[in-house]
Amino acid sequence: xxxxxxDEADVRDPGEEELRAWRELVATARRTVxxxxxxxxxxxxxxxxxxxxxxxxxxxxxxxLTPDDVTGVGLDGRQVLGTLVPTSELPLHLAxxxxxxxxxxxxxxxxxxxxxxxxxxELPLIHYMAAALGGPVRVAPYATYGxxxxxxxxLRALAGRSGCLLQNHGTVTYGATxxxxxxxxxxxxxxxxxxLTASSVPGLSPALLTPQQLARAEERLRGxxxxxxxx
Length: 231
Description:
Largest sheet: 8 strands, mixed
Number of helices: 6
Order of helices and strands: HEEEEHEHEHEEHH
Distance between the termini: 43 Å
Structural class: alpha+beta
Shape: globular
């Protein structure tokens, strides 16, 4: 699709922090394509810098984005950076930032996750990494893309979670960094693929975790990784 430009008259130049965040955002967006989580310009990525939300523009292939294509809006949705029209899923991204402490949001149309969203109201507890997303991953009821209705449905599914599925649509995850938001997306897609694979064996049903088992895993995950690591 061709680049589309908006007519906002009160945009400003990006600061150094915003330029750094934009480079990271573009790299993350390109990663979603390279890893097969989106096709073409489907899906979108955003990052919050202060009161500004940097977001991928609508209909622009990620490999064509340059440092001059910085696109940003305020939390009220008013464009403050760039002239490319922001993603049509802007209401979804802004809803996350207005109601959580998120600093980054990744939305994809990942195949296995989208398939699961058409089958169940919640991803079955196939693996303890569901705890890393806050618990069982819910499916937000379907609504037309880019609408406030979809954003409201998503927020209900995200309550107490850092990721959810969108029925017949895809995934949404958020985090304190772009890397964290992306890793959660990749983990969610992997769990969906795992459940679909296990449940496809004729005559067998996959063993699922109990809420108690998930709670114990969640407790252990709080201490996972390196702490106070020096560079």
